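stage 2 :: seqdesign
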């Protein structure tokens, strides 16, 4: 099962958040409008997730995107790449196989994954178009409607909500997100004891002031920041799963003591969120459950009913 709709209804940050919360596996097809400045003349993009983590992106359907990147970097010839592709097990990420064979190093795979991420970041400028999400099984079994694009996968993955937060930092044109931004009269309530990924200075300051009672307008005054800058940053934190929007002075969903007790004591990036290429992505464990509360339970319930 899957879901589809317009990016005006569900923006990419919201879709990434839902996929992360639902730990979904499958392909998100994004079709920008033809006149989209960010992706003019490119066509559709295919973004793959495994257990809520982004693992690949391509704008082609021949499973040769990653191979082309490797060839263009001059690391391997086309003949060698094709020979290795013939030998690669059908259920192993191509990047993991190349590292296992000793023909590419971990640093090279990280660079290739960063190139994937930059394609995703660029897509976050797109706020008009269509999307389709099609579910698959985490192991890409043949019984699934879709099989994982093993030849497009470096073996590295990143939580979808972290990708969304990083991508929103780079967005230059916010016109398409105006209706998505939190109101200045709302407050923020924390959803994690410590941020699971590194925040920039303003993100960290706003997260520290997320107490469920201080309105965004007051936060802007305290930090001597423009209201718009605070709204944009709050939106990033919300899409990153770190805070939720609440009415000031009313009880927030917050975190249960059980979940808080499971949080790491390290306020910087956790080991669970670091990219790993030691094993195929299909063997990676699920990310720690850092969110709770009725809002997120409702979102997950929505996902289960739609996908």
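stage 2 :: out
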């Amino acid at each position: 099962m899957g879901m589809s709709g317009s990016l005006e209804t569900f923006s990419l940050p919201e879709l990434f958040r839902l996929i992360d919360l639902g730990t979904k596996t499958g392909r998100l097809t994004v079709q920008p409008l033809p006149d989209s400045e960010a992706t003019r003349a490119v066509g559709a993009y295919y973004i793959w997730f495994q257990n809520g983590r982004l693992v690949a992106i391509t704008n082609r359907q021949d499973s040769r995107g990653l191979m082309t990147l490797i060839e263009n970097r001059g690391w391997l010839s086309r003949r060698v790449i094709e020979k290795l592709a013939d030998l690669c097990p059908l259920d192993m990420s191509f990047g993991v196989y190349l590292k296992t064979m000793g023909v590419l190093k971990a640093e090279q795979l990280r660079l290739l994954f960063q190139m994937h991420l930059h394609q995703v970041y660029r897509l976050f400028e797109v706020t008009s178009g269509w999307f389709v999400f099609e579910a698959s099984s985490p192991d890409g079994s043949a019984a699934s409607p879709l099989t994982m694009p093993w030849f497009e996968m470096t073996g590295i993955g990143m939580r979808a909500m972290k990708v969304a937060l990083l991508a929103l930092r780079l967005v230059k044109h916010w016109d398409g997100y105006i209706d998505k931004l939190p109101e200045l009269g709302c407050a923020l309530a924390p959803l994690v004891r410590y941020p699971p990924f590194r925040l920039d200075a303003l993100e960290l300051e706003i997260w520290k002031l997320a107490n469920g009672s201080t309105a965004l307008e007051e936060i802007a005054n305290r930090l001597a920041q423009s209201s718009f800058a605070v709204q944009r940053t709050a939106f990033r934190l919300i899409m990153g799963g770190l805070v939720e929007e609440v009415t000031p002075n009313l009880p927030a969903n917050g975190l249960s003591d059980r979940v808080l007790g499971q949080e790491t004591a390290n306020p910087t990036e956790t080991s669970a969120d670091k990219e790993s290429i030691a094993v195929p992505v299909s063997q990676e464990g699920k990310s720690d459950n850092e969110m709770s509360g009725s809002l997120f339970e409702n979102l997950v319930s929505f996902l289960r009913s739609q996908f």
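stage 3 :: structure notes
- Confidence is low (pLDDT under 50) at residues 256-274, 276-296.
- The longest helix spans residues 106-123.
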